[in-house]
């Protein structure tokens, strides 16, 4: 598949490298065409880089790996026409560190990042995923044992199926991929990130190499 | 131990019954002394009931099992003097259903319920716990297999130790009891509840008989 990854930070480069590794063609997008990190990444990965708009034009799927606080500006630069009809996978979180650590999860008129993308780019088929774990676990879920989980939120079933396919390419197994429902459910996963930050300090030893799982019991009559 | 459980809803009665079952003396507190559900509960459990203030006076430990939206009024009725120096275990969530289902998690000037309790009753030793799961799982964690988790948040280490003891009495095992840190971390678990609601519909089949666990991987050099 042709995939645009917008954002040259750790998350964007990690995702882009892994998608290349598993056989996709990736253009890494950044604000300006002469981005040094994107240039280095492209050389190391035998891939291309370009502006947000150039990357989005290339992509059949567009991955937003920019910070949620700048996502609106990034996607405007990418161009609504270059997103129309496409699967837009949003892996971002909008974290506000202005009150220190831990950060707050920002909402926009009560909506999360992915919801605002879907509202502002109604022709895009937005799917939220991969925003509830460390970026190493995102792309190498096999590094954490067991049925830890990744969530999908989105209004377009086909777009979620395409996204699930990319997750499988990176090593996620079907029992791990949990469809939470429509795009509004992404607000819940975006709010979860603050708990992730706390849990990471205590449970992950700060390493990020952990994830949540779901343990089920019998719904027996209660005594 | 002498324990006050404030709130006669399903959560309060479930907790109160279980605490009696494992050997504690419990007074179930409600707004008025003639509460019919509290009266029935007391008869069935060979225990007493009373007003919020009467219950709080009795309790060495006071459990807030009222809804987070009314907690401030409930604890004011219980009386600051009756909470001073005591372990106050807050299991509540503040859910706003005014925009329909799923609800929003309410904050108060940016603070969660447990944070506002600690702020408004500075002599109480507030611990947040048990607010991230169904009330059956709260009191019978053995009904869900494996190392699913319960969180503790609070500023007072001794109060958290007392709370952990009560959790153990109900069947929680040490690897399941995760101390997240100070009371401010409870805001994260209160925000998690919205994700719980979504997950419960999809993953728990609506039964509530599930919980999250933490799966850990090795922090190996990443390739």
Automatic annotation (TrEMBL), chains A, B:
InterPro entries per record: NAD(P)-bd_dom_sf (IPR036291), P5C_Rdtase_cat_N (IPR028939), STEAP_metalloreductase (IPR051267)
Residues of the Pyrroline-5-carboxylate reductase catalytic N-terminal domain: 2-93
UniProt keyword terms in alphabetical order: Oxidoreductase
Pfam families, alphabetized: F420_oxidored
The keyword Endoplasmic reticulum is assigned to this record: no
Official protein name in the record: NAD(P)-binding domain-containing protein
Species for this entry: Catenulispora yoronensis
């Amino acid at each position: 598949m042709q995939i645009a990854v917008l954002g040259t930070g750790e998350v964007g480069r990690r995702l882009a490298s892994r998608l290349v590794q598993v056989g996709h063609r990736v253009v890494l997008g950044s604000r300006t065409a002469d981005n040094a990190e994107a240039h280095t990444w492209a050389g190391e990965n035998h891939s291309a880089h370009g502006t947000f708009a150039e990357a989005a034009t290339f992509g059949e799927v567009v991955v937003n790996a920019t910070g949620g606080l700048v996502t609106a500006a990034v996607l405007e630069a990418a161009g609504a026409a270059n997103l129309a009809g496409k699967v837009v996978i949003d892996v971002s979180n909008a974290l506000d560190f202005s009150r220190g650590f831990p950060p707050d999860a920002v909402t926009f008129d009560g909506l999360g990042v992915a919801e605002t993308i879907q509202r502002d780019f109604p022709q895009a088929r937005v799917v939220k995923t991969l925003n509830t774990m460390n970026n190493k676990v995102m792309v190498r879920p096999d590094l954490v044992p067991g049925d830890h989980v990744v969530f999908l939120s989105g209004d377009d079933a086909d777009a979620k199926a395409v996204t699930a396919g990319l997750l499988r390419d990176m090593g996620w197994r079907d029992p791990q991929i949990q469809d939470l429902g429509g795009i509004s459910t992404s607000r819940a996963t975006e709010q979860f990130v603050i708990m992730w930050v706390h849990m990471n300090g205590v449970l992950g030893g700060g390493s990020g190499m952990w994830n949540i799982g779901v343990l089920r019991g019998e719904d027996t009559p209660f005594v």
